Each structure stands twice: as C-alpha cells, then as structure tokens.
UniProtKB/TrEMBL annotation, chains A, B:
Listed name of the protein: IMP dehydrogenase
Keyword DNA damage: no
Keywords: Metal-binding, Oxidoreductase, Zinc
PANTHER family: DEHYDROGENASE, ZINC-CONTAINING, PUTATIVE (AFU_ORTHOLOGUE AFUA_2G02810)-RELATED, ZINC-TYPE ALCOHOL DEHYDROGENASE-LIKE
Taxonomic placement: Bacteria, Bacillati, Actinomycetota, Actinomycetes, Kitasatosporales
UniProt family annotation: Belongs to the zinc-containing alcohol dehydrogenase family.
Length: 338, 338
C-alpha cells in the first residue's frame, strides 16, 4: 500500500509501505474512501512537536471494510464505515460514561493518510452506514470523524444551550464546525473570531451571527461590547495556543463556560485568575464515538454539510501539497482521494 | 465599637474603632449576633498574603439590623439577617445569571470580626429570617453565610448528581460543609480526604461514606481503587494549594468535574495535562446570595446543622486566640460572640 510519512518538519513523503494486517482479533482493515490533513498535523509539520523518527501520518478516515478480526461482529466486509481518531472498545467504564476518547484500551489513529488502514478496537470504533452513501456525502462524513465531532464537543463542553451566546475562537476547520455545533445546540448568537475572508464567509454560512476580527485584548473588548459588558455564556476554544486560551477565558462571563479542544501547546493557566473569572473550563480529545450515530444522520439527511470545510481536494499522492497549502493558510482543509 | 485588626502576620489585636456609619443610601448597619474566623483569614495571618498596613478583619456575619440607608427597603431595623462575604446588588447582569459573587457593584466584606458592621449593597445582600431565630441556630446560619455556601458551590461546580461519587479534598470547615452539600445534592458515595480524627468523625456525621487518609499520589491511587480505576464523577477542592489542586484534578474521571473553592495560591495548571485528563474545572468565589433562602430553610428546619463546624467558641475580645487555635489546627473553626 501507499501512504504519507513525515521525515522531518516540512518533509512529508508519499511512500510504499507494508500492507496493513489484522494483528489482533479486534482489528479491521479498511480501504480508505477519503482521508485528509488535520490542523493538528501541522504541529509536527511546523516543528512545534518533535519528529524523532520517520513515521506515517493521518488520523481521519472513512472507508470500506475489507477484512475483520475474529472478534469483530458489528461491521462486515463491504460496508462503508465512519470512525474516530481515538479508537475505543465502547464497553469500558469510560466508554460507558460517554468518554470513549479516554477508553481504557484507546489507541490513537496515526496511519490514515494511506489507501489502506488498520483500525484497532474496530468493534467499538466503527459505525457502518445503512447503505453505501453517495460520494457527495463522503467529505461531510469524513468531517464527522474528527473536526465536526471535535467542534461538537467544544460546544457541549462549553455548555451551549438554547438561546445562549457563544463565541468561537479559531477559524480553522474545527472552529468552523464548532459554529455548526453551536447552532444545532440552539445558540441564539454565535460570534466567530476570524480575519480571513473565506473563513468568515463560511462561518456566516454555517450560522455565525457576528464576526470579530480583533484579537487579544482588543478582541476581548469587542466580545464584552457585544455581550452587555459581561462576556459570553459559552466560549469554544479551537486553537490551543496560550494567546487563544487567554482570549477564550477572558471572553466568558462569570458562570459561563469555556470548551477547549485545540491541543494546548505551552499553555499554563493561572489558578487565581481562573478562580476570579468564575468561568468553567472543560476540554480534551473529543468523544467522537458517542456522537457518531447522530452526526452521521445529520449529514446524510442533508441538515448540515460540514464537508464544506474542505476547500482543497487532491489525489492522495499529492498529500505533501495538502500540508503546504494548509501551513500557508491557502486552504482551510485538504481532502485526499486515494 | 470594637473589632479585630491585623497589624502583621501573627499579630491580631482587638481594638476600639470608629463606629460604622451609613456612607451610601444602599448601606445598612448591623449589630453582630455572631461572627467567626475563616480559613482564608489564615493566609495573611501566616504571611502567605502581604499585610502592608494594619486593617480590620472578618467577612462572616449574622446580626440584627440597626439602621438602613434611604434606598434599602428589603430589610428593616430589628430584623435578624444573613448575608454573604461578597455583597451584591442582586439586579445586575451577573446577579441575574445567579453569579452574585461577581456582581458588577460587588464589595467584599472585610470588617466583620467586630460588634457592629456596615453592609454595602444591603438591599441585594441581606436576607431576613421570618422571626428572630433561636440562638441554637445562629452558628448554622453563620456557616450559611460563607463556609456552607462555599461548600455548596463546590458541589454545584463539580456537578454532583444523584447517585454519583464525590471526593472532597480538604477537611477544613469548607470541606466539611462540602460533604453536607454533596449529600444534599444526592451523591451516593462521598469520599472525604482527611487524616485528623475529629474532622474525620464530623465528615462521617455529615454524610461521608469513606475516608482516605493518604495524600498526593498515594491519595489519588486510593481514590482510583475506590472508583473502579477511573476516578470520581465529582471532586470538590476546598484548599487552594498546588498540591491539593493536583490531587483533585488527578482524582476526577474523564468527563468528571472538579469544583474548586479554595482561593488558589501559587497554582498553575498545565493546559495539556488538563486537556488529556478530560476533567472539567469550575471555581471561584461562591455565589452564596443565590443559595441563601434555601440554605436558611435547611438550617431552620433542622435538616442540616453546619454549625457543628464550630468546635471552639470564644468571646469576641479573644479573637486572637481563635486565629491561633485554627492556625495550630487545635480548632476547625472558631465562633466569636460579641
């Protein structure tokens, strides 16, 4: 098979690799329908996370089941399946609590920018669609497997409620999907923080009611202006830098909540500052598996189209260009077709 | 009038001071029924907070209204009233959201270890009882005005639900009151972390089902043992040190919640650690005013008796001994009678 391998920051190669095999009776092998490049893939690409040795990349996928291990009965060869970047057995205590992304047997996916992928914990991780969906739905279902699920968790963790005001920090694919989630959960006012024309446009299309271009203290001041001086009920932090986290915390009202889903990089939160802000803070890897059935339905029913975050489509063998386009912010998110 | 003044760490004096006066039409003057020493008073007493100039002390009080400003209509002279350490107008946007401790006109109380006290924002802050309560209820009502309200907020912020498992970190008066709150909110299992015999006994009397004496990593390991390996649904952090906060965060299960009410001192929370713990975190000064009507009823009906946290009663003029006894952990909490 062939897939993407990172050798060093900025150095993504498309290479021939060993075909994936069933290693455990709980595994499945899928043939990738579509995959993509994630904003979080840019951390090692930009050298913000170390690359000690060359390794495959990618954790987003939808595809066709080719083979299943002896203990996998929930999906079968030929079916179209959607999964999550965090695999889960869906039976352990954390899974039963709805936090499958902290499954006691969790394995994070990391080899999905390839034409074939081994899925650990396949029984608990994969959800098959009733029929093979029309190709026009594939990008939306691919978004479900990570960026929409993550935006949804941001909205849930920020306790978005009907009639509330939500601020979305970050205009990447996750932030844009967080706008969809905030709208679906009933937010009356959705303020998207963005200064990029194409992203602002998509945020408005997804349901944002206001756009704030300012950042940092100026951005916070604008949010306060728009929220009667006290801040927003819910803030969805979809970046993960110290600046974005500070902006998010300062944008929430006392008693409001910040959902943070950007993996924090060099972020330290001062306990006393958090205390006196009286804002709640909840984040982590999104429990996508819990949301899959509902989000798949929302996409296949045509109610939402998170697939619009893919504004660049490339053949899988041009994966390196996908990284570069996203790194240079020429693309929001690059879809890859094997 | 006479009241307590701190001159330097360890130096509390009972002095003659100017009688309090109505300064604003929203003020009231009360004659103190009972007051007390708070765990947070020990921060400056121990030098962990600076004392640049001598100043009065105390923020907990119940008493009799003596005089009200021209805009105060909700209480009248002669009534017995309960308030909060954070005064609030009870009309601003934050108050309407139920976060009166972040009232836009908030003034923190700081002169209550005295026989008379000026209460700013009296209209929004003070709640009068229907009749003058029997003296045996005064300690309980005094606890309502701070430590019980704060423990209640810890339980609410930690999202204690019927049937859930709650851990209480801290066996001071707030921690012990947090046990009461967790029980009233329906926790099925309440694990109190304590190594002091008298406090453990009171925790059990208040509703704790388990006691854990270990601290730090050992304490966390014991909590994991008691919670099927994953941690507790809710953790109520009632101390405010870096160690207690770390212990609290590590004791919560993925998707669980930490309510933190000990004012954090030199606490920095690592963003990535919080992210992967998947625990929620919410704290701040307790919105006691929101709880007052219900908590007063719980005390006067005899359903709960948070007044038991006072295991030392002194005449007000011996306030310095109250500080010393609490500092040396000879007393959980010292009640002062003018």
């Amino acid at each position: 098979m062939r897939g993407a391998v990172i050798h060093a920051p900025g150095d993504i190669r498309f290479e021939t690799l060993d075909d994936p095999k069933i290693l455990k009776p709980t595994d499945a092998i899928i043939r990738t329908a579509v995959t993509c490049v994630c904003g979080s893939d840019l951390w090692p690409y930009r050298g913000a996370e170390p690359t000690d040795a060359a390794h495959p990349m990618g954790h987003e996928y939808v595809g066709f089941v080719e083979e299943v291990g002896s203990e996998v009965t929930s999906v079968k060869p030929g079916q179209f399946v959607v999964g999550s970047f965090a695999t889960s057995d869906n039976t352990c205590a954390n899974c039963r609590n709805g936090f499958q992304s902290s499954c006691l047997n969790r394995e994070f996916m990391s080899t999905c920018q390839a034409d074939h992928v081994r899925i650990p914990n396949a029984q608990g991780t994969l959800v098959a669609t009733d029929d093979i969906p029309d190709e026009r739905f594939w990008p939306g279902l691919l978004a479900v497997s990570d960026v929409l699920g993550t935006g949804w968790w941001a909205a849930e963790a920020a306790q978005v409620k009907p009639g509330s005001t939500a601020v979305v920090v970050g205009d990447g694919a996750v932030g844009l999907c967080a706008v969809i989630a905030a709208k679906e959960l009933g937010a009356e006012r959705i303020i998207a923080m963005s200064r990029h024309e194409s992203r602002r446009k998509l945020a408005l299309e997804f349901g944002a009611t206001d756009i704030v271009a300012e950042r940092g203290d100026e951005g916070v001041a604008r949010i306060k202006d728009l929220t009667g001086g006290i801040g927003a009920d819910s803030v969805l932090e979809c970046v993960g830098t110290a600046e974005s986290m500070r902006q998010a915390l300062h944008s929430a009202r006392p008693g409001g909540n910040v959902g943070f889903v950007g993996v924090p990089h060099e972020v330290a939160i001062d306990g006393q500052e958090l205390f006196f802000s009286q804002a709640g803070l909840h984040g982590g890897p999104a429990p996508v598996r819990r949301y899959l059935p509902d989000l798949i339905d929302l996409v296949l029913s045509g109610r939402i189209d998170p697939g619009k975050v893919f504004d660049l489509t490339l053949p899988l063998d041009q994966v390196a260009e996908g990284y570069q386009a996203m790194d240079e912010r020429r693309a929001i998110k690059a879809l890859l077709r094997p």
